Amino acid sequence: MKSLSIIIPLYNQLIYTKQLWESILSHEFSEVDMLDVIFIDNGSTDNTSDWLKQLCDSPNNSRVIPHGLLFSDNLGFGPGINKGVEISLEKYPDADILLLNNDMELLPGCIDELVKTTTDFPNAAIIGGKLFFPDGRIQHAGAFLCTMGWGFHKGAGQHDDKYKDVTEPTNQEYVTGALFYIRNYFIKESKHNVFDEIFAPAYFEEVDLCYEAHLAGYDVMYNPKVTAIHYENVTGNAMSTPEDNAKSEMSNNNQQKFYQKHEHSDFSVDGPKLLINAKIYGNWSFSMVMRNLAKGLSRNGVDVSIAPEEYHQRENVEDWEIRRMILKPNDYWNRHVLRSSEGEHMYLMPPGKKRIAHTTGESDRASKQWIDQLNNVDLVLTTSNFFKDVLKGSGLRTQVEVLPNSVDTSIYHKDTIPMISVEKRRLNFVSVFHYGDRKAPEILIQAFARAFNSEDDVTLTIHSSSTLDAIKHQGMEVPDYILSVSGVLDRAPIYFTKGHVSDNDMPGLIKNFDVMVLPTRSEGFGLPLLEAAALGMPSITTGYSGVLDIVDNDTGWLIDHKIKNIPLQSLTYFSNFIGGNWAEPDVDHLETIFKNLYNMNIEDIKKKGDNALIKSAQFSIENVGKLGKNLIFGD
């Protein structure tokens, strides 16, 4: 059992103080034997002092003991806290300290979870938790300072059920002083009396103490199980007025004091550092792949900074795990640099300590210009064994390793709930792709239309908004396009989804179906096949190129093919294909596979899906990040 002192600075706003007190009393403590609650009244002018006197004269809970310190003047946040800590440690020399703003309401289990964190993470000198606005949105889930010196609260403004960035206790740059747990041993080691009083009356003192903890080799832990409602600056607003904007001025002045104090401090994170330069924004799969890679590396202890290729966009990324990396310094001279791009566009790579090119392709050859660029970096990472062989066969001398794309297993998993928005038959196929010759949509439609007529209990759903755009551009309706491609009138239903489906909703869409189908001519990887596998779904795909790292005869069905020359492509990286080859999927063989699956026991299909699920585990964000860290920095 642990001794704990709670210190609460006050300045008017008695209604909130009473609310906080009631939330403390409502706790059923299992981790502490006694709470000493010290109220620091900084010269309140309402009824706060009278309430405190009455409370302290007749405490009504033997395990929660209130004490009131009344001051005629406003000492400020830091000096008031210091005085409370001094008095607490005189009475309880081994007690930890919990600092609370009076505009807080502790949610059930908050205090016990804080104390449990001290046991689980003994190197955590400071601990904070997840704070909510009164309307249920997140106010704070850890915090950091960006390259411009401003503080950012992770998760701010997001709804809790949508915020998946940090779900386990993690080491943070700092946590807010509104709920701020300090270990006894760190208090005794502090150079000054807890908070440095150069920041009086308020702001930046908790940031300063967190950074001092890091400098001393300790962690600042955020635990999402520690929860409270924060009524946000009730006291601070009472101290300032709209006319003089005192709150903003205090914060700005103390921000300058903080950076002047730490001008020569080394806050750099020990361990590997990486700058990623790539397309980051938007819903394009390439950007999603790079965001997942950045997360995987970061979760494995790499200090990642992101320099988005699309500097002109500067979107307000809601994903705080990524936004934090975008807002961090791009100090490439202190970091290895990873540059990722489509095809041969490897230019504009900052020098860095070590230069890594991340690239992929779908042809069986790479152009001389592309290889020349890759031969002038320190390491090449590519997404499949297929394209690793292509690069080496095209004259690559630089070390090349396979770093596959990853899948977010927090949303792509076997228990994903299907969206109830599609027609269900005995067997339901789905295909997800971006329109183009390489995806062979005409072979997909031909084979399905030949395999099944209107009496067969089967469907094919195609999710490809770009295909719908292409059909419209040709002046056709979907039924006319299907007929023109297949030449079949009596066929089973072929559906096209309409509209955009968000990244978070895509797993629920795919989960409606039984088998993924992608008769591609070539892939540098094949992300839809991996996403299907992570949902426990088998796939049909062409037995060629990068997809073979994901799909084999245990996890799906491979379409026979021939090799043919790639026609000139109207793509930004078209030289990827000049003189190269790709596969031509056998439409008759795909038709046969369709028919065989229709006559197969559904349980046998599911067994291949189970195998695909097991194989997909190696492609999780965390596992790919671990592999990436080892490839870039060594074991």
Overview of the molecule:
The radius of gyration is 30 Å and the shape is elongated. The strands form five sheets. Strands 1, 2, 3, 4, 5, 6, 7, 10, 11 and 12 form a ten-stranded mixed β-sheet that branches. Strands 14-13-15-16-17-18 form a six-stranded parallel β-sheet, with helices on both faces. The chain has a six-stranded parallel β-sheet with strand order 21-20-19-22-23-24, with helices on both faces. The protein is built from 20 helices and 26 strands. The two termini are 40 Å apart. By secondary structure, the chain is an alpha/beta fold. The chain has three domains: 2-261, Spore Coat Polysaccharide Biosynthesis Protein SpsA, Chain A, CATH 3.90.550.10; 273-406 and 624-631, Rossmann fold; 427-619, 3-Layer(aba) Sandwich (Rossmann fold).
Q: Briefly, what is this?
A:
The protein has 20 helices and 26 strands.
- Rg, alpha carbons: 30 Å
Total number of β-strand segments? 26
Helix content: 25-40%
Counting structural domains, the number is 3
| CATH fold annotation of the largest domain | Spore Coat Polysaccharide Biosynthesis Protein SpsA, Chain A
- Which class best fits the helix and strand makeup? alpha/beta
Low-confidence runs (pLDDT<50, min 5 residues)?
234-241
Describe the biggest sheet?
10 strands, mixed
The CATH C-level name of the largest domain is Alpha Beta
The global form is elongated
Question: Proportion of β residues?
Answer: 15-25%
Number of helices, counting only DSSP H or I runs of 4 residues or more: 20
CATH superfamily of the largest domain: Spore Coat Polysaccharide Biosynthesis Protein SpsA, Chain A
In angstroms, what separates the terminal alpha carbons? Answer: 40 Å
